[in-house]
Amino acid sequence: MAIMSAAGLVLIGQLVRWQVLEHHRFVAWAEAEHQDELVIPARRGEIRDATGHMLATDLIEYDISASPKIITDPAATADRLAPVLDMPRNEILQLLTADKPWVPLKNKVPQSVGETILGWDVVGLLAESRSVRVYPEGRMGAHMLGFVNNNGNGFYGVEGYYDNMLNGSPGLQAGERSPFGDLIPLGVSRFVPPESGPTLYLTVDRGVQYVAETELEDAVKRYGAQSGSVVVIQPKTGAILALAGFPNYDPNNYGVSNEYLFSNPTVSEQYEPGSVFKIVTMAAGLDAGVVGHMGTIYDGGTIEVGGRVIYNWDRQSHGEVDMTDVLAKSLNVGVAQVAVALGKERFYTYLRRFGFGQLTEVDLSNEGPGTLKTPKEANWHESDLGTNSFGQGIAVTPVQIAAAIGAVANEGLLMKPYIVQRIVDDDRQVEVQPTVIRRAVSAETAKKLTDMLVEAMERAESPARLPGYRVAGKTGTAEIPVPGGYHPTLTLSSFAGYLPADDPELLILVIIDRPTTSRWGSETAAPTFKRIAEQLVMLLNILPDDVRQTVDTEGNPQLSLNGGN
Questions:
Q1: Which of 12, 446, 509, 556 has the largest count of CB atoms under 10 Å?
Q2: Residue 558's pLDDT is what?
Q3: CA 355 to chain centre
């Protein structure tokens, strides 16, 4: 009796604990056993070019598998699966009769095939859907687009910069489930639908991008170069019309590519710009009034700045020359004199105005700020004033230098480069407006310098000239920095130019890295610029100067970039 009484007391105590003292905990536990939450992923937003052409979207694929032990008729099932999966019947039958609880049959089958198998409703066959990011144009635009990994995360380019926005908002399905895991129809449930990511319309034109990439690849191979980049922007707005880098990769199959190819060279890789930078130095000198565009200087072939002797590229003295000759003959001594006349404070103030040493804040992932040493830093030397004037000892990104030269083309106004033009979702549409960062130089200075650049190209008989159009531009040939100095033979050649010079619609920057057929920008980058420009003026309906001026005089509407197709 004592044992039974003790046991009864224990049971009564447990019942009191379970039903009274800890009742709420066990109720919550029981509810949790029957409640289930399922996160419903949102569809990732699409990316389209300026004309609406699809550049990136999501497709549904299925992974097909089976549980052999519960398939009642393996032979008949194999007969049905063989043609739709495009697999040998005997191979499928062998898998369906395997002594395993689960076997994979085929992954990444098209949506139509997966939905067909689901429609059969065969017990033991499983078709699991998953979203896959696809890029219909393959390699084209890979650097500007980036890619999405298997976990749905965007990396590099537009995919990386707008990752959170493109992902949208996931949904939720919660409710009571039966012991078999099925949702109870009349039970307590909650459903929050997913919200798909918005569609991004880029400023990039697919046709312009194709021309830029095709000509860049041809140039890299033609001149035996290691790599290259092209930037095409609209100077008046900062809108990017094309970004190209070669070699590139296929974002549909990024896993087989080398990681170093993922980085967008136009915004992430910095380089010494060389003589293209003389445009900036000359703009500063003209704007500050230390030189006149019709004034002359004496070029003795050398100049000493901060204890360092600076030579012209040809190691020659050119005597009395005007400012246009300094640009036409690309005289290091001439622009170094301009920088010395400006003085270190004014010179570096102008470089800051043009945006060097800071991010352009372009809407692309992994942008670099470049490198600009100033007199306030301990590692700056007086000689840097001279070498920086012609683009040595300073590092820039292609988009950065393109934006800076675009300021000269745009009457002195520095524009923020951007690549997304419109953001569209179900209930709103946001149009991105051009942004003026600051005035770099006066409109008068910009016009004078543009005329000088056009004349300099004529005097130098530049191969970048385009019949029928006044082109303002400058070549660059920069030595490659190596430990202890510069490489004795390898260079980075470039050309930056805009047209029509009096009303610029296009600015094109071409960079050829380590060409082997010729080390000079005039023989590699400049001809590439011309090949790109002569196609783009036709593609974008940019009229030749004489036709355009005639149209303007007659008062007829002028075709321009915005009217192109």
A1: 509
A2: 45
A3: 19
Structure tokens, 262: 């993922």
Of the candidates 200, 227, 206, 208, the one whose C-alpha atom is nearest the C-alpha of residue 137 is 206
Q: Could you tell me which residue, 560 or 16, shows the higher pLDDT?
A: 16
Q: Are 194 and 62 in contact (CB under 8 A)?
A: no
Separation of alpha carbons 386 and 377, rounded Å: 17
Average pLDDT over residues 470-479: 95
The alpha carbon of 474 is separated from its chain's Cα centroid by a whole number of angstroms, namely: 25
Dihedral over alpha carbons 536, 537, 538, 544 (to 10 degrees): -170
> Are the CB atoms for 211 and 540 separated by under 8 Å?
no
- The percent of residues above 90 in pLDDT, for the chain, comes to 72
In angstroms, the CA 469 to CA 214 distance is: 23
Residue 187: predicted pLDDT = 58
Task: Take residue 525 and report the two structure tokens written for it.
Answer: 């980058």
pLDDT of residue 339: 96
pTM (2 d.p.)? 0.86
The pLDDT score that the predictor gives to residue 194 is 82
Assign 563 a pLDDT band (cuts: 50, 70, 90): very low
Model confidence at 33, pLDDT cuts 50, 70, 90, reads low
Helix (H) / strand (E) containing 389: helix 384-389
- Where do the DSSP E strands lie in 308-378? 308-311, 319-322
Strand, helix or coil for residue 414: strand
Q: How far apart are CA 191 and CA 172, in angstroms?
A: 6
Amino acid identity at 384? D
C-alpha radius of gyration, the chain, whole number: 33
What domains can be seen in the chain, in order of their start residue? 206-420+429-563 (3.40.710.10)
For residue 125, the SS3 value is: strand
Closest CA to 163 of 362, 361, 360, 363: 363
**Is the model's pLDDT at 207 over the cut of 80?**
yes
